[in-house]
């Protein structure tokens, strides 16, 4: 098990400073919050895992569902440490075998997220994990798979970064949302 987060020396200001900001990426006017800088900083990465580990207890989770692809980076070590299943949510055509899929809207079009049917046990209590929550579209679609297809319950949503100014809370109002840090569009 990970040590209690209170034992770590990192504070929220230091964690914020560990996140690289890239202006005008991928296009002008967009501020990109790059979590790869967290991965190169073992203290910041450990801080993320410790906090998410606490959420697993708080929300009484027995299965983690990671959203492609950066969600995998945070969910995989937690699932291994907790000895609980890790389910992957991927784009259509990336998973073998029988899948459940859900289409969702993007700014310009649609996309599809899928999970393998055999990977999630009915009745599981699932925490969805991603690196960043923007509009909440991908997480909303993934949650629909959990509740409607897998016949499991949604324990909550977890991410390193939240962008509440994009309105994700109105799409994800069916379960608790946990983020380590929120940005308001600065």
TrEMBL record:
<dbReference type="Pfam" id="PF00156">
    <property type="entry name" value="Pribosyltran"/>
</dbReference>
<dbReference type="InterPro" id="IPR005764">
    <property type="entry name" value="Ade_phspho_trans"/>
</dbReference>
<dbReference type="GO" id="GO:0044209">
    <property type="term" value="P:AMP salvage"/>
</dbReference>
<keyword id="KW-0808">Transferase</keyword>
<dbReference type="GO" id="GO:0003999">
    <property type="term" value="F:adenine phosphoribosyltransferase activity"/>
</dbReference>
<dbReference type="InterPro" id="IPR000836">
    <property type="entry name" value="PRTase_dom"/>
</dbReference>
<keyword id="KW-0660">Purine salvage</keyword>
<dbReference type="GO" id="GO:0006168">
    <property type="term" value="P:adenine salvage"/>
</dbReference>
<comment type="similarity">
    <text>Belongs to the purine/pyrimidine phosphoribosyltransferase family.</text>
</comment>
<keyword id="KW-0328">Glycosyltransferase</keyword>
<protein>
    <recommendedName>
        <fullName>Adenine phosphoribosyltransferase</fullName>
        <ecNumber>2.4.2.7</ecNumber>
    </recommendedName>
</protein>
<comment type="subunit">
    <text>Homodimer.</text>
</comment>
<dbReference type="InterPro" id="IPR050054">
    <property type="entry name" value="UPRTase/APRTase"/>
</dbReference>
<keyword id="KW-0963">Cytoplasm</keyword>
<comment type="pathway">
    <text>Purine metabolism; AMP biosynthesis via salvage pathway; AMP from adenine: step 1/1.</text>
</comment>
<dbReference type="GO" id="GO:0005737">
    <property type="term" value="C:cytoplasm"/>
</dbReference>
<dbReference type="GO" id="GO:0016208">
    <property type="term" value="F:AMP binding"/>
</dbReference>
<dbReference type="GO" id="GO:0002055">
    <property type="term" value="F:adenine binding"/>
</dbReference>
<feature type="domain" description="Phosphoribosyltransferase">
    <location>
        <begin position="58"/>
        <end position="149"/>
    </location>
</feature>
<comment type="function">
    <text>Catalyzes a salvage reaction resulting in the formation of AMP, that is energically less costly than de novo synthesis.</text>
</comment>
<dbReference type="InterPro" id="IPR029057">
    <property type="entry name" value="PRTase-like"/>
</dbReference>
<dbReference type="GO" id="GO:0006166">
    <property type="term" value="P:purine ribonucleoside salvage"/>
</dbReference>
